[in-house]
Amino acid sequence: MVVYCYVEVCTSTLYKKKSQENQEPVSFHRFPSDPNLRAQWIKALVEGNHQLNADTLPQNPKICNLHFRMQDVEKTGFMHLRLKPKSVPSIFPNARRER
Ligand SMILES: [Zn+2]
């Protein structure tokens, strides 16, 4: 199954990870179940990524680790990353520019 990152204009997929072996590990993180934290994630997408559809989430959205700061993730294995509690995505390298 191919997993896509929910962040608009992010090109990470799980499929890509397997085909490009020398890349940094990419991991995908589900939206938090805590409603407050979830709201912060959505806010980050709206404000940081100017993502218009952020309040209409698909069934099982995931965000890849590229949108989290180094100090927000910890390595739990060779290719496995885990988010620290209360981490909020904050890095949107390809965010649309506001006009
Ligand atoms: Zn991503």
UniProtKB/TrEMBL annotation:
Q: Which Gene3D superfamilies match?
A: THAP domain (6.20.210.20)
Among the entry's GO cellular component annotations, what is one?
nucleoplasm
What SMART domains is this protein classified in?
DM3, THAP
Check the record and name the InterPro entries matching this protein: THAP1/10 (IPR026516), THAP_Znf (IPR006612), THAP_Znf_sf (IPR038441)
- Check the record and name the SUPFAM superfamilies matching this protein: Glucocorticoid receptor-like (DNA-binding domain)
Q: What is its main location?
A: nucleus
Q: Which PANTHER family match?
A: THAP DOMAIN-CONTAINING (PTHR46600), THAP DOMAIN-CONTAINING PROTEIN 1 (PTHR46600:SF1)
Q: What is this protein called?
A: THAP-type domain-containing protein
**Taxonomic source organism:** Ooceraea biroi (Clonal raider ant)
